[in-house]
Amino acid sequence: MPTTPTPTAAKTTAPPPRSILRDTAFLRLWTGTTASGLATWALPFVLGLAVLHRDLGAAGLGLVLAARTAGFLLAVAVGGVLADRHSRRAVVLWSALAAAVAAPLLAVALGRSLVLMTAAAALAGAGQGACRPAFQALTAETVAPERRQQANAAMTMAVRSSTLTGPALTALLTAFLGIRTLLLGIGLLWLVAALVPGRGAAAANLPAEPAPRAGFRAEFLEGIREARRHPWFLAGLAALTAVIALGYSATSVALPLISRDRYDTEWVLAAAMTAYTVGALLGALVIARLRPRSQGWAAFAGLAAYGVAPLSLVLPVHPVVVVAAYAVAGIGIELFNVPWFTATQREVAPERLARVSSLDFLVSYGLAPIGLALIAPAIERFGVAPVLAVCTAACFLVPAAAALVPTARHFTRTAPAAGD
Questions:
Q1: What are phi and psi of 122, to 5 degrees?
Q2: Can you give the pLDDT at residue 10?
């Protein structure tokens, strides 16, 4: 006697979610963001090669890179306000075009005019800074909330892949194309960043009714007030800043010294930096699918994992341990970055998202040069081991303290579901 199918038997298995890279709108945005990230990384590397080829002096390189950083920090705040006031797509277009124009100016000025190079570098930095918060907000407009973590992971994987393969490829191209041609190539990358991304959901970016705009200062302060509404964001920003300004700065200065003095080889330096990038790629791959129940605590644990990098330099360990520690640090940094960006896009009011994102870049990137400037004198005054020990403690303790802040456990102001 035939049996009647039960409701459970009649159910069908849902198809697996489609890869985010098969979404045309996101793929265009991903291409533009990747091009901008590659161009941002490539400029200081190519200018460094110019020093090796004696087209630029070491003092000139420092001045040009300082101008680039100053332009970035100034424009990232302005760009955040503009991206909330106008179309995010338009801000990406004009800021990327500004960086594209700077590239041929650098090529023309190289070896001829340090003043023009400095001005062009400031323009390039301004274009880079203005587009960063606009890209963050445009991602929120383009990608549905449930797919943003996968989208952010895909973007960071593209950037890390560029930094992994870029040095060797750029050095190879230099032998055939020359420094000036490579600078023009950076300009082409910025043209891709300017022209390829499409428009996001304009409704999420525009006010319901036309209203008189407040001044720049008032709108920037409004972004600060929005950030203060999210205690988890302020705690995360403090922890990230501490890790970048202390941990990352200390390892950047100390690793070359220890590679030379303790291990007597450049292999440790190269292997550790490569392991860090590979670890970051693995971390992004994992977090693209991983959804921890307490995502904030998991993210802070990943950020604290960076502390194993300076810790490995304090102890007289085998060089393989140093390389492994850098791989762990790379994994951990992306276990923080991707949920951090995703939570910001989810929790912050859409009309203030670019301004809050600009605060993230302004504070974390702005204090990094200060950390780099202070670490070297501190090492000369107190020695490598004590400075690294302090930085290691900061990397472990500051994220742990940030995890105790209310709302930090889930990176949300909304109460979690029962049982979480």
A1: -65, -40
A2: 42
In the chain, where are the structural domains located? Answer: 20-147+168-200, 222-403
Q: How many beta carbons lie within 10 A of that of residue 95, not counting itself?
A: 30
pLDDT at 111 over 60: yes
Label residue 169 by pLDDT band (50, 70, 90).
confident
Report the chain's mean pLDDT, rounded to a whole number. 87
Q: Report how far Cα 255 is from the mean position of its chain's Cα atoms.
A: 21
Cα separation, 160 vs 21, in Å, equals 17
324-336 per-position pLDDT tens digit: 999 999 999 999 9
* Close Cβ partners of 176 (under 8 Å, ≥ 6 residues apart): none
Spatial distance between the Cα atoms of 191 and 200, rounded to a whole number of angstroms: 19
Q: Is residue 126 a contact partner of residue 95, using CB atoms and an 8 Å limit?
A: yes
Please report how many Cα atoms fall inside a 13 Å half-sphere around the Cα of residue 251, on the Cβ side: 25
Cα 55 to Cα 110: distance, rounded to the nearest angstrom: 7
* pTM listed for this prediction: 0.86
Report in angstroms the alpha-carbon separations of 62 from 51, 67, 72.
Answer: 11, 9, 15
Rg (CA), the chain: 23
Cα–Cα distance for residue pair 52/242, rounded to 1 Å = 33
Instruction: Give the pLDDT of residue 13.
Output: 44
Residues of the chain with pLDDT > 90: what percent? 58
Q: Determine how many CB atoms are found less than 10 A away from the CB of residue 195.
A: 15
Q: How far apart are CA 135 and CA 324, in angstroms?
A: 33
Query: Which of the following CATH numbers is that of domain 222-403: 3.55.50.30, 3.40.50.12780, 2.60.40.10, 1.20.1250.20?
Result: 1.20.1250.20
Going by C-alpha positions, the residue among 139, 132, 351 that lies closest to residue 225 is 351
Dump pLDDT digits (tens) for 295-352.
999 999 999 999 999 999 998 899 999 999 999 999 999 999 999 999 999 999 999 9
Burial class (CB in 10 A: 0-12, 13-18, 19+), 12: exposed
Q: How many residues does the chain have?
A: 420
pLDDT band for position 419 (50/70/90)?
A: very low
